[in-house]
Structures are given as structure tokens and as C-alpha cells.
């Protein structure tokens, strides 16, 4: 009877550890991506030029602002 409790406690500790590890890793990754966005202005300018558009600084600023707002709205959900 005693070994059943040990096994149940070990399983519960494993589940809690996996859940906490996942949540901490997710939060850390979200903070990293917020501080270091995967797309910067230079990449955006290059993509627009490859699509045949002549990027103006105003248009690049608008697109960067839109991406930032989209990331912020995802964080709130």
C-alpha cells in the first residue's frame, strides 16, 4: 500500500514539473522574441524590394508598427 502512494506522488511531481517547465520556457521565449523581433527594418526593406516595391521609410515604419501591435495583442490573449 505504501509503494502506491510513492508512485502516485512521483507521478504528480512529474506532471507538475513538466507543466511548470513548459510555462516558464514559454514565458522566457515570448520575452526573448519581444526584445529581439525576428524581422527588422532591413529584412522588411529587402522583402519589399524583392516583391518589386520601392520601400519608403514611412511605409516601413507603418509595417513595423503593425507587427509590433500584432505581437502585443497576442501577448494579451
Structure, explained:
This protein has 77 residues and is an all-alpha fold. The protein has 2 domains: 1-36; 38-77. The chain has helices at 2-35, 41-50, 57-76. The longest helix is centred in the N-terminal third of the chain and has 34 residues, at 2-35. It is rod-shaped. The relative contact order is 0.08. The mean pLDDT is 89.
List the helices and strands and how they pair.
Blueprint: H1 2-35, H2 41-50, H3 57-76
Q: What is the arithmetic mean of pLDDT? A: 89
Distance between the termini: 45 Å
Strand tally, please?
0
Unreliable runs, pLDDT <50, ≥5 residues?
Answer: none
**What is the rounded Rg?**
22 Å
Helix content: over 70%
Strand content: under 5%
Order of helices and strands: HHH
Q: What coarse outline follows from CA principal-axis ratios?
A: rod-shaped
The main β sheet shows up as: none
Structural class: mainly alpha
Helix tally? 3
Total domain count: 2
Provide key terms for this protein:
mainly alpha; 3 helices
Gist of the model:
With 77 residues, the chain is mainly α. Helix content is 83%, strand content 0%.
